[in-house]
User: What shape does this take?
Amino acid sequence: MLKMKKLLEEQRDELLANTRRTLAGDIHLDPDDFPDEIDTASSEQNLAFQGRLRERERGLLSKIMQALQKIEDGVYGECEACGEAIGLKRIQARPVAELCIDCKSEQEQLERREG
Assistant: This one.
């Protein structure tokens, strides 16, 4: 349990450091910096991509914080759907896992049928 807590804390700290670097950077588009429309479009696309990346990081950070809270509450590693223990291999592969492999598979099958 301590190993997983340490890993989650390291991931949290890394994501927070990335966020601080992004916020500290001067991210903007100055039309005078680009000699033509292609350079401007490329830069705008890059900024949009970085925005999507930050959004994914924000979601992961939220899951990490939830996992750390579960450790504190003594319920880390329990499936939120069935209450059974999430397998060690799954927890090692995805420390923020909320569902056991069976419940996750069922959820994905349901999503495929609906989607």
Summary: The first helix runs from residue 2 to 24.
